[in-house]
Structures are given as C-alpha cells and as structure tokens.
Amino acid sequence: MKKKVVGLGEVLWDILPERTCLGGAPANFAYITTLMGDQGIVASRVGEDSRGVEALRVMDGLGLDIDHVQTDGGHETGRVQVKVDGKGIACYEIARPVAWDHLDWTLDWQRLAGKVDAVCFGSLAQRSEGSRATIRRFLQSTPATTVKVFDVNLRQNFFSADTIVESMKLADMVKLNDEELPRVMSLCGLPHKDKDERASAQRLAEAYRLKLVCITRGERGSLLLRDGQVSEHRGFRVKVADTVGAGDAFTAGLVHEYLHGASLDLMNEVANLVGAWVASEVGAMPTPKRGALENSLAEIR
C-alpha cells in the first residue's frame, strides 16, 4: 500500500557551470520516494517567475504531487550556485531571500499534515523565522503515527543551536553525516569523541527519544541505531558523477523501508544502494535505466 510521504521545505534550482537542475532536499527526497513506489508530495513555495513555472512543470513531469506547492508573487524562486570538485563533491552558495523563506501556514497544509504517513524536513528551510514557524506548526499538526524525519543538512551559516535542538525534539528519526556530527553534538550540548559515532548516536537517541538515528559516511556507508541495536554498512563503490542529492536519496530509501517494516540491516542496505545510484548519475533527480529503479539498483550491486 502506498504511503503518503511529504518533503517539506525548499525547492530550488541547482546552477552548475555546465547545467541547471531542479533540486532542494525535500524535492529530491520526494522524487526518490515516488520512484520507490510511495506517494512523494512536495510542500514548498516557488515564485511566480519563469523559474517557478518551470519548477512546477518539471516536478509534475517527474510524477511528483505538486498540489501543495505554494506560489509567491513577491519573491523569486530559490536558486543555488553549485561547484563540484574533482572528486564530485559539491559546495553551495544559496541565494536569499527567496520564495521558500516565506512558507505560509494554510488550511490546505493543515489538511495535508493531518493525513501523511511521514514528513521529512531539514534545517535550511528554517533559516527564516516565518518558514521556521510554519514548518514547526506542520509537524505539530501531524497524527501521532506520522514519522517525522529530521535530515539535518547544515549549509553555510543557515542554522542555529535553537533550530537544531527544537528540530531534534520534534523528530522521530534523525539523519546527519559524519562531518556534521561533531557540530550537531556541540550545538545540542552533548559530548562527542572522534571515531565513536555509535556512542554519539546513542546519546542523541536518549536525549531526544528518537526511534532511529542515522549517520552517513559518504562512500564508506552508514551507521543506523534503533532501540540500542546497531547496523553498519560499508557502502557501495561507484564512479561518482556528483554527490548532489545523494544524501536525500539515501534518506528516501531509509524512510521507505522503515515505513514498510524492514529490518535495520535491510534499511541500511537499500538506503546505501539508492544513495550510490544517485551519486553515480548526473543531478539529484536522474531517470532510472530502462524505466525501472530496480534495474538501476541491480547494476550498483
């Protein structure tokens, strides 16, 4: 049975030297969610400009539910200048203010919040006070059974201790990478020792009553912790095209398997597979080979 899964936050255009691609962590997440067989819903805001019109057209063409994307006549659609180094690692320069800095709490979003199985949100879209308040209200309006996923995504200086701590409190599941872990532990006022990710994951789980903590390690895989049980995966070796959206794909795979009752090890396996596939392709929303995600993942294996 299809689950209703929302990517809540930013939609933007990733502007690279050789191309421009639609992106934003919530949209990337919702796209992979849709490929995996659930209903990926984008809850964001775009401008009433040419980039906003094109963003809606592209998302609709990819099969995403865009009925809950707001439009803004006073602010432009989000955009990011992306630079990718020789190893395919991306760095970002994010424009502001843009439409998704003005997420509005509406009756439509209240109704949406009341019927979703999972919602994924990050720290970036909370950089403005208005959007931060709207995101928190959305999360607080979901049923008790809704899985709330905090995908940290520290970008530039667009975060604060308050944003991280309050998001942790609202979340059931938290995902962050190994480079973000020391910073997040410090912001949360929790001790951290290098090379002891398991202990830090346990501290986060206990401090915020989290059902699952995920620490990704790039090509070296990931660590999952749930109810004191740990799963570690070594990752999949692929030729990296770029890493844009790979982490969002990982999160989508993880959440899909979690919602459908997978074991901890299977969640880890599938999430790494999906993340590796996106890293091996250009852009955050690649088209599966021969029209099926399973075919693409089989090649990664």
Helix and strand layout, with pairings?
Blueprint: E1 4-8, E2 12-15, E3 20-23, H1 25-35, E4 39-43, E5 45-47, H2 50-61, E6 70-72, E7 78-84, E8 90-94, H3 107-113, E9 118-121, H4 129-140, E10 147-151, H5 161-170, E11 173-177, H6 181-187, H7 197-208, E12 212-216, E13 222-226, E14 229-233, H8 246-259, H9 264-280, H10 293-300
Parallel strand pairs: 1-4, 1-9, 2-7, 5-6, 9-10, 10-11, 11-12
Antiparallel strand pairs: 2-3, 7-8, 12-13, 13-14
Helicity level: 25-40%
Taking all Cα atoms into account, the compactness measure Rg is 18 Å
Structural class: alpha/beta
> How many H/I helices?
10
Order of helices and strands: EEEHEEHEEEHEHEHEHHEEEHHH
What number is the mean pLDDT?
A: 94
- What's the main sheet like? 8 strands, mixed
Strand content: 15-25%
Distance linking N and C termini: 26 Å
For the biggest β-sheet, the strand order reads: 4-1-9-10-11-12-13-14
How would you characterize this protein structure?
The longest helix is centred in the last third of the chain and has 17 residues, at 264-280. The strands form 3 sheets. The protein has an 8-stranded mixed sheet with strand order 4-1-9-10-11-12-13-14, sandwiched between helices. The model has no long low-confidence stretch (mean pLDDT 94). The two termini are 26 Å apart. It is of the alpha/beta class. The chain has helices at 25-35, 50-61, 107-113, 129-140, 161-170, 181-187, 197-208, 246-259, 264-280, 293-300, and strands at 4-8, 12-15, 20-23, 39-43, 45-47, 70-72, 78-84, 90-94, 118-121, 147-151, 173-177, 212-216, 222-226, 229-233. It is globular and about 50 Å long. Helix 1 (25-35) packs across helix 8 and helix 8 (246-259) packs antiparallel against helix 9 (264-280).
